[in-house]
Amino acid sequence: MNLHALPPSALRGEGMTSQRARDRLVARLAEEGIRDQRVLEVIRQLPRHHFIDQALHSRAYENTALPIGHGQTISQPWIVARMTEALIEHGVPDRVLEIGTGSGYQAAVLAGIVPTVYTVERIEELLRQARRRFRQLGIENLRSRHDDGKLGWESDAPFDAIILTAAGDRVPLKLLDQLAPGGVLVAPVGSPSQQVLVRLRKSADGDVQREELGPASFVPLLGGIG
Q: Which CDD domains does the annotation name (predicted)?
């Protein structure tokens, strides 16, 4: 297990933000089908309340999505856990690209397992806040960039795995091109009213196999920067 140590100050909390609250969340995730102990342990350690506004701290360890401003949300813990589990099920990738930093929570979960995480966010203010959280938590194996996520991170491609935290009607070809042979991409795909979580596997000769993992509900995947 490649957990990165968090400073004690990051783990302190009281009442609804305490370690006991995180333990209850992890127990619920396990009851609802999350099996990978690496994923559960990272979520047990990571203070989700640091990734949302203080006014919502009392709801931080509910298994629900919460608003983070700019029309975006922090995904429910179950979907974060499920996507991470799907990404590492057949081996931990060395380098992962995340499209849609948002609050930074999904990237931080990945950084607790994966050696190097790259994350791209189109909304500058959200990225600024996420970077501050990464510094406060002492997360050092994570690189971030303000850019159009549909373009990926071409200068550092290919990536062993790619994860999208916003849904389009299809996965941009630009991102599939940046997935290494043998790599895995996990993403929600579909319209705002009907989405499915998919896992794409790229074979050594470039063929892509698609597997549906279940229903999903994410904000739209948008281009450009803000």
A: AdoMet_MTases
